[in-house]
Amino acid sequence: MENKILSMIETYEEDNDFYGPIAIERIHEIEKDLEVKFPLMYKNFIQGYGSGGICGVNILGIEGNDGVSVLKTTERYRELGLRKDLIVIEDLGEFIMCSETGDNETILYWDRVEKQETIRYDNFQDYLVDTFQEAIDNWD
């Protein structure tokens, strides 16, 4: 993970902001359930942090055996028309942030009412830097 992201987390992390590390075997189980392969950067985030974020950001992921927010949320939005090759990484109410899967790492904004996609970031790392920075700017 990029040093800038690690620095943001180190500076702003509070107790219980992240679930904690997840075994790669558990990640593979969830990929199988969703019938996708997580992009590498997102997979690395889950492996290191599980789910969560800083300054009010909540990146969906895996919460050990307690739950799987990425699975449940993605399945719910697929019922509403979300493409099968996308996973939900952040649920913001009116819209969601999604990641393409496999070798594609594009991050999309998906409007659940209009069912329209808009490309927002080239990859998970760019998304995370921007999202964390915006949250930090609003937090301070």
From TrEMBL:
Lineage of producing organism: Bacteria, Bacillati, Bacillota, Bacilli, Bacillales
Top-level taxon of origin: Bacteria
Name listed for the protein in its UniProt record: SMI1/KNR4 family protein
InterPro entries xref list: Knr4/Smi1-like_sf
